[in-house]
Design brief:
This protein is α/β, with parallel strands linked by helices. 48% of the residues are buried. A 7-stranded mixed beta sheet has the order 3-2-1-4-7-5-8. Strands 6-9 form a two-stranded parallel ribbon. 51% of the residues lie in helices and 9% in strands. Helix 1 crosses helix 11. It is globular and about 75 Å long. It is built from 15 helices and 9 strands. It has a single domain, classed as Spore Coat Polysaccharide Biosynthesis Protein SpsA, Chain A.
């Protein structure tokens, strides 16, 4: 009897969790009007804002030059690129220095001298030197559309937003079985789920293609230097004090990225994100949200990585209990509810994969659909392992940053984005009336000190 009650309780919890997650995941496709509202509006008139684009780069010499080149192709007229490099990373610094010499009006190099380095520390190092009205963040491997800044500028002006979150999409779906699922996760998250969060007034921001008014960012104290999910933390803090966040997604405007190149890299990346979400949950800034519904959404969202990993392990165990243990017929039937929800989710994922290929002009073959379904349980096991590892690390006080390496796999897989518009004005330097930086940090010229032990 007790076993039957326990099995029913777990099954119902898993079922409702799966239903809620699926409902939120499909938010953008509920109606044609909802889908249309998720897109960027077409810019009208001249640019009104200036941008400081932060580009933290850590051992990214293989991809950094391409990213800077793409940013310099922007059709916007008022922007600067600030590349942040480590004092102990001469290879990446050399690439950044070459770009700065080639276009000194657009590109500056700031050196991060922290003994232990991570992304939020690098971003905070550059924040005092930002001259733009808006601070934008990109990663060193990003492939950025030349018209993105113009659309973001218009989004700020038209909506009065404090923050604009653009879309990010992993592209190299055919690199491996897990890349396929990783790409689809990003597709659902940026295409749909983040729009729901923005609508509800609580949003964990994405790691890049996020733009924040410089004044708002400085008032917030920048990024938390000790948080492993600094993007999520910033979004939670800004949401908690009522800042307006707008999410816009257009397949032509997304920032294209690559998946981690090995399973171990993916495991470490997910561990870092999960641990970061747990850190944000424990900081309790989300408790300042004004409504109970927002606080419930925050609690569920910040715990979602662990709940998903838990469900991936428990669902097959639950079915095994129903088949091989002595439970009542009713309890045995209830145990199959999570499996039914999982099957429905697989159907929507198949449809989503088709839409992903259509949106990005990528050929999705039958074998990819097979890999999507067959790889599902194994991917859940990976997520479970990452979540367990994150809890273990958090309990032991281990919060060193595990760097994800990039090899540029997305640069050959994705169709080339369009170049600048024929009618776009020529690039210009920062606005003449922009205040000068209060001095520049020393550029990276120190000899190599070897790889950080904490990496």
């Amino acid at each position: 009897m007790l076993l039957s009650v326990f099995v029913v309780a777990i099954s119902l919890a898993l079922f409702f969790m799966a239903v809620f997650t699926l409902w939120w995941q499909m938010h953008a496709w509920r109606t044609p009007e909802t889908l249309a509202a998720t897109r960027f509006d077409r810019p009208e008139g001249d640019a009104g804002l200036s941008f400081s684009l932060l580009l933290p780069a850590r051992h990214e010499q293989a991809v950094l030059a391409h990213t800077i080149e793409r940013l310099l192709e922007s059709g916007h007229t008022n922007y600067e690129i600030i590349v942040i490099v480590g004092h102990d990373d001469p290879e990446t610094a050399a690439v950044a220095e070459r770009a700065a010499r080639h276009d000194p009006l657009r590109v500056r190099v700031i050196t991060d001298t922290h003994a232990k380095k991570n992304k939020p520390k690098a971003l905070n190092t550059a924040l005092p030197y930002c001259r733009g009205d808006v601070v934008g963040v990109f990663d060193a491997e990003d492939q950025v559309h030349p018209e993105l800044l113009a659309h973001v500028d218009h989004a700020f002006t038209a909506t009065g937003a404090d923050v604009v979150q653009g879309g990010v999409q992993l592209i190299n779906f055919h690199s491996s079985w897990y890349s396929l699922r990783n790409c689809l996760e990003y597709f659902f998250w940026f295409r749909s789920r983040l729009h729901l969060h923005a609508q509800k007034g609580f949003i964990p921001l994405g790691g890049n293609t996020v733009f924040v008014r410089t004044r708002v960012l400085r008032d917030a104290g920048g990024w938390d230097p000790d948080c492993l999910a600094e993007d999520c933390d910033l979004g939670v803090r800004l949401s908690s004090v009522g800042k307006k966040v707008v999410v816009a997604y257009d397949s032509d405007m997304v920032t294209r990225e690559e998946t981690p190149d090995t399973l171990l890299s993916l495991l470490k990346q997910r561990t870092r994100w999960n641990q970061g979400f747990l850190q944000v949950y424990r900081k309790k800034d989300w408790r300042q949200l004004p409504t109970r519904g927002q606080r419930m959404l925050a609690r569920y969202t910040l715990m979602t990585p662990f709940l998903q990993a838990f469900s991936g392990v428990v669902i097959p165990l639950n079915v095994a209990v129903a088949l091989f243990f002595d439970v009542s017929v009713g309890a045995a039937m209830v145990t199959f509810l999570p499996a039914i929800a999982a099957a429905v989710t697989f159907v929507f994922e198949v449809v989503g994969l088709h839409d992903f290929g259509k949106q990005y002009g990528l050929r999705v073959r039958f074998v990819h659909y097979v890999k999507l379904i067959v790889g599902g349980p194994f991917y859940q096991v990976l997520l479970a392992g990452a979540a367990l590892r994150a809890v273990w690390r958090e309990q032991r006080g281990r919060n060193e940053w595990e760097l994800t390496s990039h090899v540029g796999a997305h640069l050959t897989d994705a169709p080339a984005a369009a170049g600048p518009r024929p009618d776009a004005p020529a690039a210009a330097g920062p606005r003449p009336d922009a205040p000068a930086a209060a001095g520049a940090a020393p550029r990276a010229a120190a000899p190599a000190l070897g790889e950080d032990a904490h990496r």
